[in-house]
Amino acid sequence: MTATFPGFSSEALTFLRNLKRNNRRDWFQPRKEKYEQLIKMPMLELVGHLNAAFARFGPSYATEPQRAVFRIYRDTRFSHDKTPYKTHIAAIFPRNGAERMRGACFYFHFTEKELLAFGGVYAPERDELLAYRALIAEQHDELEEILRNKKLQRTVGRLQGEQLNRMPKGFPPDHPAESLLRRRQWYLESIRDIKLLTTARLVKALADSFEAMVPFVEFLNRPFAGKARRKKMLFMAF
Predict the structure, then answer these.
(1) Separation of alpha carbons 108 and 205, rounded Å
(2) I need a labelling partner for 123 at 20 to 30 A (CA). Which of 103, 151, 182, 217 fits?
(3) How do residues 193-208 score in pLDDT, each as one tens digit?
């Protein structure tokens, strides 16, 4: 890994623009080596630099690059989009020890036009939803304080996510955290200037967004952190 990540080359964005227009195997396969040179290998290096940043403010989320970076190949079996390749390049940083990546995570992706940093929960399973809502019902004051933080709001904005029209079953309709409990997603995101992608400022821009989100993501992971620690201790016992 180089001392500093210089950013992606402008050719990487050109490749993504061309892939968007030519999302076919007969176009991609002869250019696979170019994809690996322009995008895959720099992406793995970028994740390594972000892991170094996580070591400072969120060591529980540092993730081995090969595990963090998503494959470019689309699983078309369950997708409405039947094109064979993704046109966004993405990486995810779940909490270490998270079972099947359950819990809140950090994530970023870029396309030829957009650079996005994300922290939180996007598609929780049913039992996860209940765990988040139970946590929020009991400790909503702390979450609200985290979300009011001025630096957080300047860096990544306000809480986002889909909401139910009514309170979920099992929670009183007059609960003081009603607007938080009606959510089925809890996340923060920051859209950064795509021009950063080709500069050495990219790592800092993403790291700044992730660092601002740490208290929020750590709060959401409380129901799962204990399970991860117990799993690690059991593994060490053997």
Answers:
(1) 11
(2) 151
(3) 999 999 999 999 999 9
β-strands 105-110, 89-94 pairing: antiparallel
User: How big is the chain by its Cα radius of gyration, in Å?
Assistant: 19
**What's the distance, CA 46 to chain centroid?**
15
Which amino acid makes up residue 13? L
Determine the Cα–Cα distance for residues 56 and 110; give it in Å rounded to an integer: 24
- Strand locations in 71-147, DSSP E? 89-94, 105-110, 115-121
- To the nearest whole percent, how much of the chain has pLDDT over 90? 87
Residue 176 confidence (pLDDT): 97
Contact between 44 and 66 under an 8 Å Cβ cutoff? The reply is: yes
- Report the b/e string of 188-222 with b at 16+ CB within 10 A: bbbebeeebbbeebbbbbbbbbbbbbbebbbbbbe
